[in-house]
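Quarterly update from the structural biology core.
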Amino acid sequence: MLEIRLNCENCNKQLSNDSSEAMICTYECTFCKDCVENVLQNVCPNCGGGFEKRPTRPKEMLKKHPARDSKIYKPVIENKYLELYVDINPRER
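Predicted structure, tokenized:
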């Protein structure tokens, strides 16, 4: 089941379940759209993958399977994957 994380791991911006700004990688690392585009350049600093818009969990299902209640906040100091993958389409990495 997809883990709904409620903040950007880099800037700590709040990302509610229905946020259109929430972006995730294949491992569910969660960042805001601004950080993905302007800081990370669509390269996850944790795995090197690309990002997609996070889906919204229906409200009834959110009651059964709530969002994560603890934050992951690790501001990106270095993106070790950026130079390797910035010019490669995420589907071809």
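The chain has a mean pLDDT of 97.
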